[in-house]
Write a structure and sequence with these properties.
The protein has 172 residues and is α+β, with helices and mostly antiparallel strands. It folds into two domains: 50 residues; 119 residues, Immunoglobulin-like. The protein has a four-stranded antiparallel sheet, with no helix packed on it. A four-stranded antiparallel sheet has the order 4-3-7-8, with no helix packed on it. Strand 3 and strand 4 form a beta hairpin. It is elongated, with a radius of gyration of 28 Å. The chain starts with a helix and ends with a strand.
Length: 172
């Protein structure tokens, strides 16, 4: 038997061993990444299941102000740093406009009164535990100011979406 055959056998064993090692390590890495992403998705779904809100009251004051009362009926708390991630949508009829309804997404602002096409938190009650945080069993009042005058004789609509995608809506 020649040295060429032995060398070729050793080279093939090394190649097969290296290929096997790379295949196994990439499979383990892929499974680890997939496991982490599934765990993250599961945690997000779990948070959504624990989050519930209800729009209790919607009223208009003045020509372009909307007052909304929201109850946190779930078990998830919304931190005051998360208010900027709450989306508010308003679909309303404009007074005297030939174009009819306007659909607006309104961002959060900390200023009071809010600027046109913005909303702000007026109060959270009772806010005994974790002041400034929208805890379970608490009620949050928000003030929405739209740019155009709302026709209160028409049916209008409002939707509030929490940072994790849970929403509630109400006609007013």
């Amino acid at each position: 038997m020649g040295y060429g055959t032995i060398f070729a056998t050793i080279a093939m064993v090394v190649l097969i061993g290296t290929a096997s090692y790379l295949t196994v390590s990439s499979t383990i890495f892929s499974m680890d990444t997939l496991s982490k992403s599934l765990k993250s998705a599961n945690n997000m779904d779990n948070e959504r299941l624990k989050t519930e809100i209800a729009v209790v009251n919607v009223s208009t004051s003045g020509n372009n102000d909307i007052n909304v009362t929201i109850n946190n009926t779930g078990t998830t708390k919304i931190l005051n740093s998360g208010f900027e991630h709450i989306d508010v949508f308003v679909y309303y009829d404009v007074v005297g406009a030939a174009s009819g309804y306007v659909f607006s997404w309104l961002p959060y602002t900390e200023t009071s009164p809010p600027e046109n096409d913005h909303w702000t938190v007026v109060s959270i009650s009772p806010d005994l535990i974790n002041p400034g945080t929208f805890d379970p069993d608490e009620q949050m009042r928000i003030w929405i100011r739209v740019q155009r005058n709302i026709d209160t004789n028409s049916t209008n609509w409002l939707k509030v979406v929490m940072p994790n995608g849970v929403s509630a809506s109400k006609y007013f």
